[in-house]
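Friendly challenge for the regulars: who can give me the structure tokens for this chain first? No prize, just bragging rights.
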Amino acid sequence: MAEIDFLIDGIEAADTPTFLFAHGAGATMEAPFMGMVAEGLAARGIRVARFEFDYMAARRRGGPKRPPPKVEMLQQEYHAAVAALRCDGPFVIGGKSMGGRVASLIANDLRAAGAIDGLLCLGYPFHPQGKPEKLRTAHLAELTVATLICQGTRDPFGTKEEVAGYDLSEEIELLWVEDGDHDLKPRKRVTGLDHAAQLERVCDVAAAWIRQRR
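First reply, four minutes later:
Bragging rights claimed.
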């Protein structure tokens, strides 16, 4: 497993709340969505540490473009990132899409060990796109860690109508982003809503929620 390089936004005071932020399946840690959220949270007093799974970091080093490995390997890599990141204040893990799913699969064990204080997912992939029958929700019913999921109401990986029928843990809070897609982006021409403004609201809510952990 390669050494983990973190991309840090925000101050690094000892008691600053930290969010460990993993990317989605097809985007790097420097993707525009990742940057907008990281900068937005940092502006609200949250230290954000972005990192890349090995398959994505290898692309940056000039390696071939490959799909993500099995989720079990990604879980091991996420565990390694948690262990490598120093954090004395409230510590929340999570990510965009696949990154959030991987974090959710290890969150209970990390919380039981006292290693984390919460889970934050942005655009959770409740099922593969176009395959609503293949749910990725069984473990979400058993979550024991405080969780915030920020989801677009028309996300093709789990719409508001679909998610309403899922069995989810009482620890999960949902922040619905009006008309948002998988990147929480609304159809501006249809709704008049602005993506940047939507993400500002998400960062407002998420930062306040992170500060409440512990």
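Strands lie at 7-9, 18-22, 47-51, 91-96, 118-122, 147-152, 172-177. DSSP finds seven helices and seven strands in the chain. Your move, everyone else.
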